[in-house]
Amino acid sequence: MDTRLLDILVCPICKGPLDHDKKAQELICKADRLAYPIRDGIPIMWADQARDLQVASAAD
Ligand SMILES: [Zn+2]
Q1: Comparing C-alpha atoms, which of 25, 35, 31 is closest to residue 56?
Q2: Quick one: pLDDT at residue 5?
Q3: Residue 26 bridge partners (DSSP)
Q4: Ligand 1 centre from 16 Cα, in Å?
Q5: pLDDT tens, N- to C-terminus, the chain (60 residues)
Q6: How far is the CA of 44 from the centre of ligand 1 (A)?
Q7: What's the domain count of the chain?
Q8: Residue 60 has what pLDDT?
Q9: Which residues constitute the domain of residue 29?
Q10: Which residues surround ligand 1, an ion (CB under 5 A)?
Q11: DSSP tag of 57
Q12: How far apart are CA 5 and CA 23, in angstroms?
């Protein structure tokens, strides 16, 4: 997807920057430990759609 689009996307909860996990197709907010899914190239920026990273064990 367009990386410039990612530059303007912020977390809807904390308004912080997001990391793009290209492999998982998710946008990661490290502050909230949430992963927002990208479906068909469109980021789903809804808190209730986000995956909780505190439960899953991150590879890093
Ligand atoms: Zn956040």
Answers
A1: 35
A2: 64
A3: 21, 37
A4: 5
A5: 566 666 678 999 999 999 999 999 999 999 999 999 999 999 999 999 999 997 555 555
A6: 14
A7: 1
A8: 58
A9: 3-59
A10: 11, 13-14, 16, 29, 31-32
A11: P
A12: 18
Cα-Cα-Cα-Cα dihedral sign, residues 55, 57, 58, 60: positive
What is the spatial distance between Cα 22 and Cα 53, in angstroms, rounded to a whole number? 16
**Is the distance from CB of 37 to CB of 25 less than 8 angstroms?**
yes
Specify burial of residue 44 (Cβ count, 10 A radius: 0-12, 13-18, 19+): middle
**How many residues in the chain?**
60
Alpha helices in 2-57 (DSSP H): 3-8
Distance, CA of 41 to CA of 36 (rounded, Å) = 12
* CATH classification of the domain holding 29: 2.20.25.10
**CA gap 34, 18 in Å, rounded:** 10
